[in-house]
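dumping this here before i forget
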Amino acid sequence: MKHLILFLIVLLAAAACTPFSGPETLGEFKNNIHCLEYKQGMPWNEIKNSLGTPEVTPIPQIDSGLSQNARIYKGKTVIFYTKPQKIEKNGKMRFEEVVYKIEVCK
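structure:
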C-alpha cells in the first residue's frame, strides 16, 4: 500500500510539472505562417510566387496528356475549412461536413 501511495504522489508531482498548453485557435496557428487561399482556376504563377518553387515536378503520366502537369510541395500545411451542409439521404435530412475553402501554407 505504501508503494502505491508513493507512486501516486510521484505521478501527481510529475503531472503538475508538465506545462499545459490548451488547444490552439486557427488564428494562433496561422500567426507565424504564410497562407495562400486556393481558388478554382487561379494562375499557377500566383501559387509559385507565394509558395516558391516546388520540390518535385514529376513528368506527366502516359495516359494523361502532355499538357496536364503536377507540382509537389513537401512539408507544407494544408488547411481545409469545413461547414455542415444539409443533404437528403434515404428520404431523411442529414448534415454532412463539406469543404468550402482550402489554404496552403508554408
